[in-house]
Amino acid sequence: MPGHILVIPIRHVEKLSDLNEQELLEIMKTVIEYQKKILTFAKGCTIHNNYMPFLPESRTTVDHLHIHLWSRENKDELYEKMLIHQHDLFHDLSQEDIEKYIELMKY
Of 2, 39, 60, 84, which residue is least crowded by CB atoms under 10 Å? Predict the structure, then answer.
C-alpha cells in the first residue's frame, strides 16, 4: 500500500507488553509522528499490531513486535479486500459472553 510504514523497536520483543516504559513511550511517539506524516497525503491511517504466537512464522507472521501504519482512502484496496466483509466477520456477543469478558478485563 502506498505510504505503508513499519515501526519496529530497537530491542527485540514479541509484544507491546514486553516493552519497558521508555521504549513504549518512544515507539508510540514514533507511530504518532508517522501518522501525522501519512495524514498529509491520505484521508486516514490504520495503525495495526498483531500478536499471534499460535501461527507459524512466515512472510506475514513474525516473532517480533512491529506496528503497521497504512495510509487509507475511502474504499481503498484494503477496504475492498477485507473490511467490506466485516458484516460476515462480526456479531454481537451474548449477554453471558459480555459478562464473562467484563469480568476477565477488569483492571
Answer: 60
Side-chain-side CA neighbours of 35 within 13 Å: the count stands at 13
| pLDDT tens-digit map of 19-63 | 999 999 999 999 999 999 999 999 999 999 988 888 877 766 788
* Domain boundaries, position 68: 5-104
Question: Into how many domains does the chain fold?
Answer: 1
- Residue type (1 letter), 22: Q
What residues have CB less than 8 Å from 90, skipping those under 6 apart?
Answer: none
The confidence band for 100, taking pLDDT boundaries of 50, 70 and 90, is: very high
- Find the CATH number of the domain harbouring 24: 3.30.428.10
